[in-house]
């Protein structure tokens, strides 16, 4: 039977704390002495003394927390981006009315291939639009179709193999040849200011036709966003490079994106380059003087945020008790610590910043509820190269000059979301350890119709086309020996070789140069196999002679890379849709084997 201790003077025991069990507790909820718990679970707050007791038990009377801010005074300087430079080309004004992704990633439309017309879908679209805008009579319509005709493939011409080797491409061109107009040919003709759309067409008013032609050219330029002269694409590195600048204190701040290829353009793609200058010796325009602004802080809240007062309950949309972090999972540990320990210690100061601006907080004074003013400095200040410094949304400074950290915030005029079409070109750069070579495997090649096709299937159809042409030649004499000498084995025509060559002026550094295998078919002259994708045809279509193409060796790691060219589309803040051709690059899945072999003895088919 339990024995109860009777204290003769409980007031003295509580004052002297001689019996700790009298003044301690082990649970936060009430412990009723009755058999029913209904009233205790109601947590009634009508008793002021009971409420004060609960607050004392929850240590709400201890002033160990910081005061809450009332208002803050900010000294912020804003500097807009004024200059833009694609790669190492000429500097041009920064245009914030265009999504920065479109301005950086845009590439020319693939309208020709080896001096042959391709992208039939775009050519037909432009031709229909011109005839719709002009609305000519039947005889003039036929004259435009005859003058700007769709190319009719010739199966006897080896140069037309890109059409005739693929049934879907041949049938498409044969169906519209002589029946539809090639609008891109008209656009190419109108590039010369001395040309007129009515040239060679009888029965048209030249002035009225020129007005329609100007609207037609403007329509096509608004439909596809293409580089006017230079773009930011680096073919020798399979990535983009660009820079932009903003005035800063009578000088300028140059921001350089040296390796951009993954399609998500934001502040972390750019670094501050203290050595670059866009304006030369001319002084940069001074940014507007910063104006102090007073803002009212507000507490940061989130769903399921733990409430510090015991008689209120949180919603169940966030279950912090369900977090099971490992000892090495720092992100989850930081999230749990923020939500459970420091949830009510964070405040938000709203400030609106215009896109395309470099913002820097020069000072911030916070006044709390007790009237004390606190000067707050950037948490990421200090030397830029300090290995212990950590900060978010801050720019890195190029070089190891022990310069102070750049604490400015860069807000780029980028799109919220970008839609990506099906691949037009897809190339896989891999290393073949057996053959000791680098290959550019064309996984997807563009057909002349404007669609993509599997590279292996297209290579097989192209080889079959040339084999059919060779079948009409006289049969060679049958072999008399049971074996024959094979100088080199065949490789699928969608495998483009890259061979290492010395960099000019160096005996140690090497680069990868695009080469070509031979298409060896009996009873036919050997010809070089050229790539079909735009990514690997760099320099082949240059006039008057083809140019070599070099690729830096470090751009093809052991895992390989996959480069993909697609149509990109986004909706800008003014409601306009922007469409351009862009490139993405990602890591590959390892090496590959081409099966290339030299100097072999193989069995011969003897009659």
What does this structure look like?
Strands 17, 18, 19, 20, 22, 23, 26, 27 and 28 form a 9-stranded antiparallel sheet that branches. With 607 residues, the protein is α+β, with helices and mostly antiparallel strands. A hairpin with a 4-residue loop joins strand 6 (233-234) and strand 7. It contains 12 helices and 29 strands.
List keywords for this structure.
alpha+beta; 7-stranded mixed beta sheet; 607 residues; 29 strands; 12 helices; elongated; 9-stranded antiparallel beta sheet; 25% strand
Layout of helices and strands:
Layout: H1 10-16, H2 38-41, H3 48-57, E1 69-80, E2 83-86, E3 92-93, H4 100-105, E4 112-113, E5 116-117, H5 120-134, H6 138-147, H7 161-164, H8 167-176, H9 183-190, H10 206-223, E6 233-234, E7 239-248, E8 251-260, E9 271-272, E10 291-295, E11 298-299, H11 330-340, E12 347-348, E13 357-368, E14 373-375, E15 396-397, E16 409-411, E17 419-420, E18 425-432, E19 437-446, E20 452-454, H12 455-470, E21 483-488, E22 495-502, E23 510-514, E24 518-519, E25 527-528, E26 550-552, E27 561-571, E28 577-587, E29 598-603
Parallel strand pairs: 9-15
Antiparallel strand pairs: 1-10, 1-13, 2-3, 2-7, 4-5, 6-7, 7-8, 8-9, 11-12, 13-14, 13-16, 17-27, 18-19, 18-27, 19-20, 19-22, 21-29, 22-23, 23-26, 24-25, 27-28
């Amino acid at each position: 039977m339990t024995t109860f201790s009777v204290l003769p003077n409980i007031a003295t025991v509580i004052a002297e704390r001689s019996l700790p069990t009298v003044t301690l507790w082990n649970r936060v909820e009430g412990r009723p002495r009755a058999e029913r718990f209904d009233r205790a679970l109601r947590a009634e707050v009508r008793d002021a003394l009971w409420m004060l007791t609960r607050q004392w038990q929850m240590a709400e009377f201890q002033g160990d927390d910081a005061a809450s801010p009332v208002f803050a005074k900010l000294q912020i300087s804003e500097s807009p981006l004024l200059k833009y430079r694609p790669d190492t080309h000429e500097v041009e004004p920064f245009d914030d009315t265009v999504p920065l992704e479109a301005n950086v990633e845009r590439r020319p439309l693939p309208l020709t291939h080896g001096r042959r017309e391709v992208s039939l879908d775009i050519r037909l679209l432009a031709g229909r639009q011109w005839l719709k805008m002009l609305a000519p009579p039947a005889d003039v319509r036929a004259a435009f179709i005859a003058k700007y005709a769709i190319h009719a493939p010739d199966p006897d011409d080896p140069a037309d193999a890109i059409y005739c080797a693929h049934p879907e491409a041949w049938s498409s061109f044969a169906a519209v040849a002589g029946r539809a107009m090639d609008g891109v040919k008209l656009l190419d003709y109108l590039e010369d200011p001395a040309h007129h759309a009515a040239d060679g067409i009888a029965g048209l008013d030249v002035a009225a036709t020129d007005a329609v032609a100007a609207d037609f050219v403007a329509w096509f330029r608004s439909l596809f966003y293409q580089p006017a002269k230079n773009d930011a694409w680096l073919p020798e590195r399979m990535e983009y490079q660009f820079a932009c600048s903003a005035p800063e204190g009578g000088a300028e701040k140059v921001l350089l994106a040296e390796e951009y290829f993954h399609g998500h353009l934001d502040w972390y793609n750019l670094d501050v380059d203290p050595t670059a200058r866009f304006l030369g010796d001319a002084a940069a325009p001074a940014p507007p003087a910063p104006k102090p602004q007073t803002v009212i802080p507000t507490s940061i809240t989130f769903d399921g945020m733990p409430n510090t007062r015991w008689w209120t309950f949180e919603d169940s949309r966030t279950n912090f008790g369900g977090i099971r972090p490992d000892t090495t999972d720092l992100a989850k540990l930081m999230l749990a610590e923020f939500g459970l320990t420091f949830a009510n210690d964070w405040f938000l100061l709203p400030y609106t910043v215009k896109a395309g601006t470099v913002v820097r907080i020069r000072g911030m004074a916070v006044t709390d509820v007790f009237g004390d003013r606190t000067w707050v400095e950037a948490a990421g200040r200090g030397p830029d190269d300090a290995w212990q410094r950590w900060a978010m949304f801050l720019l890195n400074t190029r070089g190891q000059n022990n310069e102070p950290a750049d604490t400015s915030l860069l807000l780029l005029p980028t799109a919220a979301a970008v839609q990506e079409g099906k691949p037009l070109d897809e190339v896989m750069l891999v290393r073949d350890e057996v053959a000791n070579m680098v290959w550019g495997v064309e996984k997807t090649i563009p057909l002349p119709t404007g669609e993509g096709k599997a590279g292996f299937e297209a290579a097989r159809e192209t080889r079959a086309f040339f084999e059919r042409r060779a079948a009409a030649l006289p049969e060679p004499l049958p072999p008399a020996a049971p074996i024959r000498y094979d100088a080199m084995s065949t490789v699928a025509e969608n495998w483009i070789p890259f061979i290492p060559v010395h960099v000019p002026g160096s005996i140690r550094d090497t680069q990868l140069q695009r080469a070509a295998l031979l298409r060896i078919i009996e009873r036919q002259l050997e010809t070089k196999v050229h790539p079909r994708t735009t990514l690997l045809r760099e320099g082949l279509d240059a006039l008057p002679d083809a140019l070599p193409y070099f690729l830096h060796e470090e751009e093809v790691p052991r895992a390989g890379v996959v480069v993909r060219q697609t149509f990109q589309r986004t909706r800008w803040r003014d409601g306009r849709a922007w469409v351009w051709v862009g490139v993405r690059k990602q890591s590959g899945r390892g090496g590959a084997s081409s099966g290339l072999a030299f100097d072999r003895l193989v069995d011969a088919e003897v009659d």
